[in-house]
Amino acid sequence: MSSRGKRKSAMMTAEVMPGPSSAVEAAMSGGEGDGPSSTKKSKLLKDEPSTSTTEEEIKKFMNNTFDIRRNFINFEDPTVAIIRETYPYLFKERQILSEFERITEFDLDQTLQQYCVKNSGPIIEFAKHCPGTGALLKAGDKIKMEQPDLKQYWDMVTCICLLPTLLRENLVDCIIEVAEDAQVDAKGKIVPVLVSRGSVFKSDEFFLIIEEEVVQEYEEFTIAFENLFAAYWVFNMEYPQTLHNTYTFIQKAILKMKDNIPIPTQCKQLMNRLQRSDAQKKQRSRSKPE
């Protein structure tokens, strides 16, 4: 089995490749403009903030080096291990999500939350008539009874976890639950995947694995899932065929990101069902007596 995730070609990405910022031009100047990329990367590493740096300094560094980093990832096709060695700050805190926003200009966290607040109800209702969702729905209902104040959050978790099944795919291809005391085994896991210690409704340990490496750990499921999706864009990787519908739905229906790739039939069908549900809800609201 290959230890590399399948990369997009430059023509397949929806990324905008802006011209170099003045800060990056400065980093590349000084007689090194036409030199090898390794020379440029060495200079960038030398200018990287120290371990005692502030969050603002990290943000500034990541913004200033964005253009070089995208060219490095998109065209030199490095492994995730090499990216991690070259840009360790990319794997700290919320930098994968921040990088996704730099690439796409979409706030994934806010947009996904807003979508789930609006659509989790219909999605959960649709799932009640879909084979294979019973255990997940039951677990979601149980945690909402135990924590009624967090109903909106648990509806969001349930909604996200139901999407693969509603789109005729399998949740276990992107989220793997293991025993609470189990060792996290990254071997054989090439494309981005989450490993949850225990049920996603109980766990506070989620591990993002890419190319057989645990690249980051999270305490909250929704943030972990957002980083899982963002990783495909940040590391310029193709969606796997086993999750093509799920990730395309997030891209096109939730984020409304456009490209020339056709929308799969299953995605269109779910989008249409949600649109009809929303229209019916609005109609009922207008029909209510004053």
UniProtKB/TrEMBL annotation:
Region spans: Disordered: 1-55
Annotated protein name in UniProt: Uncharacterized protein
